[in-house]
Amino acid sequence: DVKVTQSSRYLVKRTGEKVFLECVQDMDHENMFWYRQDPGLGLRLIYFSYDVKMKEKGDIPEGYSVSREKKERFSLILESASTNQTSMYLCASSDTGTGSEKLFFGSGTQLSVL
Amino acid sequence: AQTVTQSQPEMSVQEAETVTLSCTYDTSESDYYLFWYKQPPSRQMILVIRQEAYKQQNATENRFSVNFQKAAKSFSLKISDSQLGDAAMYFCAYRSASNNDMRFGAGTRLTVKP
Question: What pLDDT, on a 0 to 100 scale, did the predictor assign at position A101?
Answer without folding.
Answer: 73
